[in-house]
Task: structure prediction
Amino acid sequence: MRTGHHNNGQDTESGVANLIEYLMISGVIMALFVVVLLLVNTNIMEDPANRLVFVAFTDIGNGVSTRMVDVYSIAPVNGTITTKFDIPDEIVGRSYFVDVERSGIDQEITVSRGYLNSRTSLAGIAASLKGAATGNTTGAGMNVISYDSMGGF
Result:
C-alpha cells in the first residue's frame, strides 16, 4: 500500500461519474421544466380566456347592433327617440370599449380591449341613415341610444 492512497475497495471514479451524471440529468430536466412553465401560461390559461373574450365581444356587438336597429325601426318621422340598455360591466374581470364608427360605406360596431377586438356590422341600416351613427361607451353603467329624425343616431 502506498502512502496517501486509500482505496478501501471502492472505485472512486464511479462515485464521481454518478454525481456528474445526476447533476447533468437534473440540469436538463430543470431547463425543460422552466420551458414548460413559460408555455403553460400562454397556451393553457391565456388562449382560452382570449377565445372567451372574443365570443363575448361578438355577442355584445350583435346585441348593440340589434338595439340600434330596433330603435331605428320604431323611430318617428319627426322627433327623437331614446332608449337605455345595459351590457356586461366586465368581461373576464376587465373593462372594454364599444365604438360605433364608419368603415368605408358601412357602419361597424367595434368592441375592444387592448389587442382583442370584434367588429360587427350595423345590420344593414347604415345605407338608409340620414347621418352617420357614431358614438362610444363602456360596459359600466347604463348605456343610451338616441335617434333624432334630423340627424340620425
About this structure: The mean pLDDT is 83. The chain has one domain: 41-148. The two ends are 103 Å apart (CA to CA).
